Amino acid sequence: MQRKVIYMKLFLEKQLNIDDRETAIMAILNGMYSKKYGHLSTSVSLIGYEMTGKFLKTSNKRKRNIFEGIKNAIRSLIGKEIIEVLNQDNDNYIFSGKGLELNSDKKKFVVLEQWEMQRIFEKSNKPFNVFSFFCSLIGTVNNQTKEWHMSQDEMVSLWGYGKETVNDYLEQLEKVQLIYVYRHKKRRSNGTYYKLNNSYGRYCDKEAVIAEALKYSDTVKCEDFVEKLDRRAIKLRYNAYCEGAKKYINNPAAVIALYKECLAYNKSLKYKPVEGYYDGEYKQGELLDLSVFPDEVRNEVDGNWGEPVPMEHDFSIEEIMDMPTEGASGLFVTT
After folding, report:
1. How far apart are CA 200 and CA 209, in angstroms?
2. CA dihedral 265, 285, 231, 280 (to 10 degrees)
């Protein structure tokens, strides 16, 4: 028979002062713990299985490193008195509820999915580090709008990562489709010309992230920008089109591509005008006349591409705890 794989929800207290390995262990222990029993009986092997979806064979170097990371993090958390051991036999533990009981009235938590953790530990080259970064990132996302827009400089300052590390971890999380990043093509028009912060959220909330990103950009005084724009080449192609170049005859795709370039050209003049002295006379670059393009081309490019559909529901932590969780990939196992 087939059954759906039901994954745990993981809860991580935001204010905990713990390292990357300890973060992963606290998340999975919180998911495994049940207040109904008042304690948690587990082992390093079982914790490894819940974190990765597989039993860790120590003959494999990568899996052995994860196994050792779990052991070291447990010892460290016990030493810091964040969790409490009632009984132990080698790598087998009975933990009390200390540090594992959820009190949503007094503490703030990040809510994670077990399948998200397992995907990171399957795909990432530094799973403990990337998972901890993912927890921090998701912790900034607005629960109502499903989006936020912290700058990478803020991430570096708040979380102690280098800029290259932040870029690397964001790229890894995007690649495995755990986060979606909306990159604004705008910059602030307050004289600093800083790019507008990227908007981000969970990949499964992609539509909501896009919708809120557009709202966010409307709240900031900014302007469109064009990067690495060869205006001279665009102007030459535009002139060729106006003169009836064969390339654009019966070639709507080429005309549409040129029209988009001309739009970018005109926008670029707003923040970096073309000006100077020619033949002893001061002249300023003029906007390209876009009326030379057919209406159908302009309508196709300028048309509205559709409003994204925002998420409809938001739930309390108590409601979330009562929900079964199905993996995003809709996996099934055979028993």
Report:
1. 6
2. 180
Which residues share a beta bridge with 39?
96
Whether the CB-CB separation of 209 and 199 falls below 8 Å is answered with yes
With tokens 């929900």, the residue in question is 323
Backbone angles phi, psi at 140, to 5 degrees: -90, -15
14 φ/ψ angles, rounded to the nearest 5 degrees: -70, -30
Question: What Cα–Cα distance (Å) separates residue 298 from each residue in 248, 259, 269, 295?
Answer: 15, 8, 20, 5
Torsion angle of alpha carbons 201, 204, 207, 208, nearest 10°?
-50
- Provide the pairing of β-strand 179-182 with 199-202: antiparallel
Residue type, 222: C
| C-alpha gyration radius of the chain | 27
Q: Give the pair of three-digit tokens for residue 224.
A: 């469109």
The 10s digit of each residue's pLDDT in 282-326 is: 445 688 999 999 999 888 776 533 333 333 334 444 444 454 444
- 244 Ramachandran zone, left/alpha/beta (phi>0; psi -120 to 50): left
Query: Domains of the chain by range and CATH?
Result: 7-113 (1.10.10), 250-302 (no CATH)
Give the separation between CA 64 and CA 45, rounded to whole angstroms: 11
φ and ψ of 156, to 5 deg:
-60, -45
Residue 9: which residues within 8 A CB-CB, separation 6 or more? 31, 111, 112, 113, 114, 320, 321, 323, 325
pTM as predicted: 0.68
Residue 284 bridge partners (DSSP): 275
How far from chain centre, in Å, is Cα 284? 42
Find, among 1, 10, 101, 87, the residue nearest to 47 by Cα: 10
| Cα 109–chain centre separation | 18
Measured distance CA(272)–CA(228) in Å, rounded = 12
What's the pLDDT tens digit per position in 7-64?
A: 899 988 888 889 999 999 999 999 999 988 899 999 999 999 999 999 998 899 999 9
